[in-house]
Design brief:
The chain has about 270 residues and is α+β, with helices and mostly antiparallel strands. The chain folds into two domains: about 5-125 and about 260-269, Diaminopimelate Epimerase, Chain A, domain 1 (Roll), CATH 3.10.310.10; about 130-255, Roll (Diaminopimelate Epimerase, Chain A, domain 1). The protein contains five helices and 16 strands. An eight-stranded mixed β-barrel has the order 1-2-3-4-5-6-7-16. The protein is globular. InterPro entries: CntK-like (IPR058944). It comes from Actinosynnema pretiosum. This is Diaminopimelate epimerase.
């Protein structure tokens, strides 16, 4: 087993506990490092991203998730870390441009600091398509991921088990780095997100999912054929999402949430 000394930061974007690794490691080692760091007996988190130098001259920093997926919350977490503290002083917002795995284009995040907490608004990649699937569920397809939006009442154990089977089945197709099943309660605005990363073999009922909340906003705008802004309640807190709709198409999707740094230091594998 490979031994590593890891320079890490643990962050809390809407309780979607995220580890960002700042030491450089070969991409083929990311999966093993992430699985060990995420374990209960180690740093214990829902996901791991690796910070890298950007390849594009227009990007400030680069993020590769352990499974190669796109993650909105991890992008917001890294933007909060990368924003220059002197520029954040005085309550001024700072724009951070990121390269991110699972996204073809650069993504931009606006960061505002309030004492030890950051408010981040991320311009999300647009879905390639939104369509109605079997059993009335909505399929929100991205370049490298798929989110399934299911309108439902309060999720019970049977529905959760069905969602896990669906995520596993869709993951077996091998055409997406991330499968999300978003259980949405329209009356309360509550979202229960399940995230499956096939490469890691992980399936996590996350306490907050920025990408899933953005997919929900895209679905709501597509379904209503109008722009929407709404507060999405998740187990870990509330996120604000917005989707712009004009001339029969989605033209923009944004998600806003809070980020806190909860720990940083060295980890040993």
């Amino acid at each position: 087993m490979i031994s590593h000394e890891i320079d890490f930061v643990k962050l809390d974007p809407t309780q979607n506990m995220t580890l960002l690794v700042r030491t450089e490691h070969p991409e083929e080692e990311h999966r093993d490092i992430a699985l060990r760091l995420m374990a209960y007996e180690h740093l214990h988190a829902e996901q791991v991203g690796f910070v890298r130098k950007p390849g594009s001259p227009d990007a400030d920093i680069s993020l590769r998730m352990a499974g190669g997926e796109f993650c909105g919350n991890a992008c917001m977490a890294l933007a909060a870390l990368a924003a220059p503290p002197d520029e954040l002083a005085g309550g001024h917002p700072v724009d951070v441009v990121l390269e991110a795995s699972g996204a073809r284009d650069l993504v931009r995040c606006r960061v505002l600091r309030h004492a030890r907490e950051y408010t981040c608004e991320l311009a999300m990649p647009l879905p390639e398509s939104v369509e109605r699937g079997a059993d009335g569920v909505a399929l929100v397809r991205y370049d490298d991921s798929l989110h399934v939006v299911v309108e439902t009442g309060r999720p019970d154990p049977a529905l959760r088990a069905w969602a896990q089977r669906l995520a596993a089945r869709l993951g077996e197709r091998g055409d997406a780095s991330l499968i999300g099943v978003m259980l949405y309660e329209p009356r309360s605005g509550h979202l229960t997100p399940l995230v499956h990363v096939p490469l890691l073999g992980s399936a996590v009922w996350e306490r907050g999912c920025g990408s899933g909340a953005a997919a929900l906003a895209a679905y709501l705008a597509w379904e209503g054929r109008t722009s929407v802004t709404t507060r999405v309640r998740q187990p870990g807190g509330v996120m604000t999402v917005a989707a712009d709709h004009a001339r029969g198409a989605l033209t923009g999707v944004r998600v806003q949430g809070t980020v806190r740094v909860v720990a940083e230091g060295r980890a040993y594998l």
